[in-house]
């Protein structure tokens, strides 16, 4: 089955991203396809490659990256909402250049795109599950 | 339908709203701090009947993490993350009472 | 492609957290996808469409006016929990007069807001393919 996930909360502050990750991992192991994970609201903070937890703690960003959720073209299907991301200082290279900022912080396993990707995930998937506060 | 509730009934009204709004065929999965509502406490009557009908699940990892395994309301069904996935697949549209 | 039924479940008021405005942003984008869209306002979500919101004193954008645009995008099923209104000392008269023009009925202006019982919301919810919560 094709399953998509929406995550509304950032890492560490809230369990939402941890639960969603465990759910996604179990779904993949069960033979399902994770069509897309869409990060919205503070959930966009899950995509920061500047995240450095203490050594004895999990690295939530890298955990997501290691799941390797991609489409047939090899593009990441860990998708960060552009409007929510720019509000919160999550940038990819093109948004950084466009806005005159000297670096970017998105992890390469994620990509920034529009809210239409969330609606499309709802249309294309058999199930959509929301994790939030 | 599958309804997930992730907050304790002592903190938020999400379980109450969920129960007030679900149809007779829906099931509830308690996750994160929602598992506090799976324990025997002053609010247990909210879910006792649904649990007796076999319609209340709780995420085992969250129950164990919070040290409440021995305090659960009768007939709550425990599932792991794979069981969570199976509930999503079996019960159609899922609603998160975040 | 078959049209899917999408419900947007709103349970929080407008300004204390970002969820209400960012939910409305999704709804506006959803309008372009020609799907069947319903909005449910339950619990404190009913305050999102109350009349007379004024944000001059808090330095935040008053996005409540945007709800008036939904009718132009054929988003005209806004279900409000009667019980949630009553619990909060509110009635349908306290809500914004949100309307749309019914193309199947000679473009007559009709109300988009439907105050319904939780039992009716339950029935409507049961028919949805996707439920977004914010």
From TrEMBL, chain C:
Pfam families referenced in this protein's UniProt entry, alphabetically: DsrE
Keyword Plastid: no
MF GO annotations: transferase activity
Keywords per UniProt: Transferase
InterPro entries: DsrEFH-like, Sulphur_relay_DsrE/F-like, Sulphur_relay_TusC/DsrF
UniProt entry tagged with the keyword Transferase: yes
Top-level taxon of origin: Bacteria
Family affiliation: Belongs to the DsrF/TusC family.
Protein name per the record: Sulfurtransferase complex subunit TusC
Organism in which the protein naturally occurs: Candidatus Vesicomyosocius endoextente
């Amino acid at each position: 089955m094709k399953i998509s996930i929406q995550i509304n909360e950032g890492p560490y502050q809230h369990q939402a991203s941890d639960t969603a990750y465990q759910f996604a991992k179990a779904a993949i192991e069960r033979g399902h396809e994770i069509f897309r994970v869409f990060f919205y609201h503070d959930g966009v903070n899950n995509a920061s490659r500047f995240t450095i937890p203490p050594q004895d703690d999990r690295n939530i960003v890298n955990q997501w990256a290691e799941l390797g959720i991609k489409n047939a073209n090899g593009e990441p299907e860990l998708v960060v909402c552009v409007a929510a991301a720019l509000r919160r200082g999550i940038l990819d290279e093109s948004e950084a250049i466009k806005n005159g900022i000297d670096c970017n912080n998105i992890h390469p396993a994620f990509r920034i795109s529009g809210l239409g990707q969330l609606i499309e995930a709802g249309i294309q998937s058999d199930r959509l599950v929301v994790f939030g506060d | 339908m599958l309804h997930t509730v992730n907050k304790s009934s002592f903190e938020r009204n999400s379980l109450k709203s969920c129960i007030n709004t679900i149809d007779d065929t829906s099931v509830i999965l308690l996750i994160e701090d929602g598992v506090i509502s799976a324990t025997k406490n002053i609010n247990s009557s909210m879910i006792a009947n649904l649990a007796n009908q076999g319609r209340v699940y709780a995420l085992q990892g969250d129950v164990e993490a919070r040290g409440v395994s021995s305090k659960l309301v009768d007939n709550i069904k425990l599932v792991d993350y794979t069981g969570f996935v199976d509930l999503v697949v079996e019960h159609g549209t899922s609603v998160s009472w975040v | 492609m078959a049209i899917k039924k999408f419900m947007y479940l709103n349970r929080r008021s407008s300004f204390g957290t970002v969820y209400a405005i960012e939910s409305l942003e999704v709804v506006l984008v959803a309008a372009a996808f020609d799907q069947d869209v319903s909005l449910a306002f339950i619990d404190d979500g009913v305050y999102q469409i109350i009349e007379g919101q004024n944000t001059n004193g808090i330095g935040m954008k008053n996005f409540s006016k945007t709800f008036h645009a939904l009718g132009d995008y054929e988003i005209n099923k806004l279900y409000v929990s009667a019980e949630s209104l009553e619990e909060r000392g509110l009635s349908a008269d306290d809500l914004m007069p949100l309307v749309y023009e019914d193309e199947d009925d000679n473009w007559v202006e009709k109300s988009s807001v439907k105050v319904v019982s939780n039992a009716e919301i339950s029935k409507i919810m049961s028919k949805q393919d996707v439920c977004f919560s914010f």
